[in-house]
Design brief:
Length: about 210
């Protein structure tokens, strides 16, 4: 099951990825009230209770790997809820081919967009998918109007393979051959993998 990452922290220069827990839901719920984010992520607004149910189901879902993206400058140090900038997901939905992962990135905090957070979070998730989940092909489905996201994925070597005019979305794809794998691991060789339980010490422990 996808509990594989429940104690995993991936710490990069700009962002740190942590597992999506119940503590993150209120902030996440707040973000998803934004009409712009609903449009960009093609999602319906949920009640807080529904959002909590969703978080629980995702945590137990064998086909999803989800991390919350935190600002590395702020966490650890500040509360996680105050350090949250977005989320990144990997869906293993291709029953015929378990080496395909569909990747999704959302930088929800407007002040954190255009600063390379999304790019690093995506690279961290891709390297994790390659190393830990055996992914060799990535797909990203992005709304046609979301030019910033499309351009970011193209910089990460994804190629446009399909356009769905009904859903107005573009599908991009990356096959991870040896050369791409080497490039990806080189881009992420600064990343530290840590235990979430150890980093998440109660605040009092840090003060002594």
């Amino acid at each position: 099951a996808m509990r594989i990452n429940q104690d995993t922290v991936l710490r990069g220069k700009k962002v740190t990825l942590v597992p999506y827990t119940a503590a993150h839901v209120p902030r996440y719920h707040e973000w998803m009230q934004s009409e712009e984010l609903q449009r960009l992520t093609a999602s319906e607004p949920l009640s807080l209770e529904q959002e909590h149910e969703m978080q629980r189901s995702w945590q137990d879902d064998a086909d999803k790997c989800t991390f919350i993206v935190l600002d590395s400058e702020r966490w650890p140090g500040e509360a996680e809820e105050n350090s949250m900038v977005g989320d990144v997901n990997l869906f293993l939905t291709n029953v015929e081919d378990p080496t395909v992962g569909e990747i999704e990135i959302m930088i929800a905090e407007p002040s954190c967009r255009g600063r390379g957070f999304g790019k690093e979070a995506t690279l961290l998730m891709m390297a994790y998918g390659v190393r830990k989940l055996g992914i060799t092909k990535f797909e990203a489905k992005i709304g046609q109007e979301n030019e910033a996201s499309i351009s970011m994925f193209k910089k990460l070597h994804f190629k446009e393979v399909a356009v769905n005019s009904v859903f107005q979305e573009v599908t991009l794809r990356l096959d991870v051959n040896d050369q791409e794998r080497w490039w990806l691991l080189k881009q992420t060789n600064h990343v530290e993998e840590k235990s979430y339980a150890e980093l998440k010490q109660p605040a009092g422990v840090l003060d002594t």
